[in-house]
Amino acid sequence: MDPRKRMIAAIEEDTRETAEWTGRPALAARTLEAMRAVRREAFVPPAAAGRAYENRPQAIGHEQTISQPFIVALMTDLLKLKPEHVVLEVGTGSGYQAAVLAKLARQVFSVEVIGELAERARAALAAEGISNVEVRVGNGAAGWPEHAPFDAIIVTAAAVEVPQALVHQLRSPGRMAIPVGAAHAEQELMLIEKDAVGSVNKRRVLPVAFVPMT
Question: Which of 25, 38, 150, 192 is the most exposed place for a label (fewest CB within 10 A)?
Answer without folding.
Answer: 25
